[in-house]
Amino acid sequence: MRGRPRDAVVLVAAVSLALALGACGKAAESGTAVRPVSPPTPGRPTIGLLVPDSTTPRWDRFDRPLIERRIHQLCHDCEVRSVSAQGDVAIQQQQVDSMIIRGVDALVLVPVDAKSMRPAVEKAYDARIPVLSYDRLAQGPISAYVSFDGKEVGRLQARALLRAMGHRSAHDRGIVMINGDQADPNGVAFKKGALSVLTGKVRIDKSYDAAGWRPENAYADMSGAIAALGPHRIDGVYSANDGLASGVIAALRANFIRPIPPVTGQDAELAAIQRIVDGEQYMTVYKPFKPEAYTAAEIAVALAHGMGPGPVARERVNGHVPAVLLRPIPLTVHSIEKTVVKDGMYTIDQICTPQYRSACERAGLMP
């Protein structure tokens, strides 16, 4: 193995630490049998980190720096080559090709499109480079998967939406669903989880799948729903994440709908937290990025040293791929302080800018 003895000691400690992380749930589709990884050739271990875009705040603000930091903590000699696909599948496929040519020892991949990235994953497999699929489950022969329980995310959003709309009959509660991109297995899982709770308890008057997770698509879909249904028939909106929620809320405001009906979200983006404080968005789902990123870094370092993902990966996706599935947390205005503030994701000052100062005072968030 390439790593120094001190790296091996750190790896053992990392696996022990990671075992303490809570894992739960089940997941769905992946690929074929996983080939055992080969020990790396002598030299400096190199890990490729491929994120899908730079428009979703979490990748550059949280995931990428957290993964890089933890890799360097665990493996002082490791090099991280980090790139963004800018939302383009072809670019990400080329980036994988480049990583293979450069001879990286492991890849951490957040696929732009899970299905379209399968040939690239297979190329890495043929080059004996293990691929850790991060947050989104790529198709193909991946060596490990780290994410949150996607169906539980959808269930949490749906339960919160039902609570916000009050106890009325299904006939009297009409909603619009703005689902995520169905080319993303996470988008599929969120939708399935939400429908398992919502079906039979509300009228789903309109349902859309927002391609590319783009807020502008959510805006267009929501505008179409308002035009078709009228402004008074929408009692709630299921929105699969915070970016889509921003488009939904912009459409509601543009059509002068007041008060804004309950809108769900996911990712606990700062703008979404501020909308929740201000009463425009009802809830989001908080997925603590640090344990997800740190777990991925620990597994990536092990893979880069020719080892398996270790006992931390206690779950299995598609029956055989080792996985860590973490537990998501619902967040409303009443739980901001004990979640994102307590965990150091945002400070009160970051949330309570002058624009939101009075709303923060009403919510009891002022320092």
Describe the structure.
By secondary structure, this protein is an alpha/beta fold. It has 13 helices and twelve strands. The chain has helices at residues 5-18, 57-74, 89-102, 118-126, 150-165, 185-198, 215-229, 242-254, 270-278, 289-304, 337-341, 348-351, 357-363; strands spanning 46-51, 79-84, 106-109, 131-134, 144-148, 174-179, 203-209, 236-239, 284-286, 315-317, 321-326, 329-331. Strands 2-1-3-4-5-11-10 form a seven-stranded mixed sheet, sandwiched between helices. It has a three-stranded parallel sheet with strand order 7-6-8, with helices on both faces. The protein has a two-stranded antiparallel sheet with strand order 9-12. Helix 4 links the parallel strand 3 (106-109) and strand 4. The termini are far apart. Residues 1-41 have low confidence and may be disordered.
Quick summary of this structure?
Helices cover 42% and strands 16% of the residues. It has 367 residues and is α/β, with parallel strands linked by helices.
Beta-strand percentage?
15-25%
List how many beta strands DSSP finds: 12
List the strand order in the largest sheet: 2-1-3-4-5-11-10
Count of helical regions: 13
Task: Describe the secondary-structure layout.
Layout: H1 5-18, E1 46-51, H2 57-74, E2 79-84, H3 89-102, E3 106-109, H4 118-126, E4 131-134, E5 144-148, H5 150-165, E6 174-179, H6 185-198, E7 203-209, H7 215-229, E8 236-239, H8 242-254, H9 270-278, E9 284-286, H10 289-304, E10 315-317, E11 321-326, E12 329-331, H11 337-341, H12 348-351, H13 357-363
Parallel strand pairs: 1-2, 1-3, 3-4, 4-5, 5-11, 6-7, 6-8
Antiparallel strand pairs: 9-12, 10-11
Helix pairs in contact: 1-10, 2-10, 3-4, 5-6, 7-8
